[in-house]
Amino acid sequence: AALAYNAMLTIGAGGLIATPDAPAILFWAATLAVLGRIATGGSPRLWLLAGLTAGLACISKYSALFLAPGVFLWLLSTAENRRRLATPWPWSAVGVAGLVFATNLAWNATHGWLTFEKQFGRVEPSQFRPGYLGEFLTTQFVLLNPLIAVLAGVGVWAGMRSRGRVGGLDLSLPLLAALPFCLYLAIHSLHDRVQAHWPATVFAAFALAAAAAVEARPRGWRPRVLGGGLILGAAAMAGVLAWAGLQGPPINSRTDPLLPIRGWPQFAGEVEAARVRTGAEWVGVAHYGALSQLAATGRIEAPLVHLIERERWPDAGPAPVDKPGLVLDKSRRLSLADLQACFRSVTPVGELVRGVPTSRVDRYPLFRVEGPVEGLLATGCPDELGKNRRRQAAAPTPPPRGDWPAQRTGGGS
């Protein structure tokens, strides 16, 4: 199971990406490990530890809230487990998890429920687009590693047919714990795209299912498929990491998976040149990712300011926002009308383009701003800019351009 797990692309290669999935995966798996000890005769006091790890999973990423109904399904699945519900221990675990998660609730309660507004805003369906379901299933089949996915499918099917047992192993706990989140993702994909890394927390269950499928039939094709899957996973991860690390060319002319990490040093140098040219004494952005990438290059010789959700993304130090500044972000996040709600004077001064010219690129309009609204550093830009940042628009909207020229930033060479 450990080998199969690390042969999955989302885990083996995606584990390098700094997202909340990494701690969520850890604490979800830790909760299953503790519950597995309880199921095989461990002390009931371990329920307190399970509550702690489940709570840590939830404050890592809200998708771990689906773990509780999954565990409840497991407790309902057998007479022995149902007897556990008659004891105080499972409910004590809920209390411990609630106390841990209360730290997140307390922060949100004093910060305008910022995280809840952002994350739960994705839940509401906007339109019926079932095509996303096929995309979701295809993407996860690839990211699980196609050969490992086949074995996982065999294991899950065998578990469904025999109340969780596959050979000599009982998979009811990991599979039932994963079921509510899997169902939610399937429903979500009927109206919106499921991002590739969202299901990562349940991949441990699929690794166990793949291993159980091989253990149940240790002779024949299954061990060979597992061996092929491990080789495929190692080769694919080496290729992906080499391609990403060396910033290889786009796959085709319309997409570029490396665009989020491509060309930042050169782009930052051009931003700094534009800042000097326009006489700006600080640089503002509307997205924490752009701010982080620009800061990491070390090429911006002025304070960087996050213009919205200031309580979530405070600056390292005070910025002279009462003096002229240069504001930029992707065209779909930023427009002249947005900034006019934040500053008395807003002047378009150009556009930078980051990416490979032969593929999809990100366009960044530049604006010279003066006269911020009162309390800009305390609460951020009001109304329109924050709404535009959170808007889930399908197509980018180009900003007003006037007659100023676009400047292009090249790729990773």
Determine the N-to-C terminus distance.
Answer: 39 Å
Order of helices and strands: HHHHHHHHHHEEHHHHEHEEHEEHHE
The side-by-side strand order for the widest beta sheet comes to 4-3-5-7-6-8
Helix content: 40-55%
Secondary-structure content class: alpha/beta
**Largest sheet entry:** 6 strands, mixed
Whole-angstrom Rg: 25 Å
- What is the count of distinct domains? 2
Structure summary, number of beta strands: 8
Instruction: Please tell me the overall pLDDT.
Output: 88
Short structural description:
The protein is of the alpha/beta class. The chain has helices at 2-6, 9-12, 21-39, 46-60, 67-76, 79-85, 89-109, 114-120, 131-143, 146-161, 172-188, 203-216, 221-245, 264-278, 288-297, 336-340, 376-379, 384-390, and strands spanning 165-166, 169-170, 283-285, 304-306, 325-328, 343-354, 362-372, 406-409.
